[in-house]
Amino acid sequence: MTRYLTRRLVHAALVVLAVLAVVFVLIRLGGDPTPLFLPPTADAREIAATRHALGFDRPLYAQFVDYLGRAVRGDFGVSLRQGEPAMGLVLERIPATLRLTALAFAIMLLIALPIGVLAAVRRNSFYDLCGMLFALVGQSIPTFWLGIVLILFFAVKLRWFPAFGSEGVAALILPGITLGMYSAAIATRLVRSGVLEVLPQDFVRTARAKGLSQAVVLCKHTLPNASIPVITVLGLQVGTLLGGAIITEQVFAYPGMGRLALQAIGNRDMPVVQAFVVVTAAIIAATNLAVDVCYTLLDPRIRYT
């Protein structure tokens, strides 16, 4: 297991490096951002001086090597707009985004597990039809549209929750539901299919023949064996939630790192965008590693050598 974890950590570091390299190149394909940092009356001489000061006049490979060398030492550059360390700006927003993502993940599980299990146990029934209808509608509704509808109904009309901000638990409810609904729809279908695959197997019939109750059969024998593919996709949903947080945070004016990244993209603030990508890639890589470790806890037959 130790060798496996070490190999996965090295692999995760290489993935983060590859993602950073791709983003470093792509963000510079939009053209020279130097004029954005100068007044419209700036002449060619001022533009050239600013471009040299920012280092944009150097070859792309030289810029990347220099940036990578500083990033290894923990220096991810300074925000071109705010004049503060880019990584520091992103790290300040991480707690808010993680709170929102954790709530969305919890909402996803609270919705997907009971609906998926009920739909599988009552296959082809009214409950199954409602569960699959929810899964279809949940994956079809655009995130930004759902957020706007929730704001209009629960914040503007009923005044139950605030429409924006991050003060208090109430401010997390609407963005958490908005962010978690799409993943809940996907997880519902996965839970249903996983339980349906396990229910006909021999060990489940044996458990029922022993006289065990339906709840014990489901919780102790069915769900652990059906959860391996579900856990795999749930780990991937963390990346989906982090990506969806960019839109959700913008709709609800939520001060997370997704909204910061969106503003940085609009302002061509390259260091902040690159710092955001590094943090996001590291979180996703750590989540995938945690999912692999969870396999051994759910199924003792799985061992990494």
Question: What attributes does this structure have?
Answer:
MetI-like fold
What can you see in these coordinates?
This protein is mostly helical and 305 residues long. It has a domain at 86-298: MetI-like fold (Orthogonal Bundle), CATH 1.10.3720.10. It is 75% helix and 0% strand. The protein contains eleven helices and no strands. It has helices at residues 2-26, 44-54, 60-72, 86-121, 126-140, 143-157, 170-198, 202-209, 214-251, 257-266, 270-298. Helix 9 runs antiparallel to helix 11 (270-298) and helix 10 packs antiparallel against helix 11. The longest helix is centred in the C-terminal third of the chain and has 38 residues, at 214-251. The protein is globular and about 85 Å long. The model has no long low-confidence stretch (mean pLDDT 80).
Question: Nutshell version of this structure?
Answer:
With about 300 residues, the chain is mainly α. About 75% of the residues lie in helices and about 0% in strands.
Q: How far is the first residue's CA from the last residue's CA?
A: 6 Å
How does the overall form come out from the CA principal axes?
globular
- Mean of residue pLDDT values: 80
Radius of gyration: 24 Å
Question: Spans with pLDDT under 50 lasting ≥5 residues?
Answer: none
Structural class: mainly alpha
Count of DSSP strands:
0
Look at the structure and name the CATH superfamily of the domain at 86-298: MetI-like
Topology order in helix (H) and strand (E) letters: HHHHHHHHHHH
Output the CATH class name of the domain at 86-298: Mainly Alpha
Count of runs of 4 or more consecutive helical residues: 11
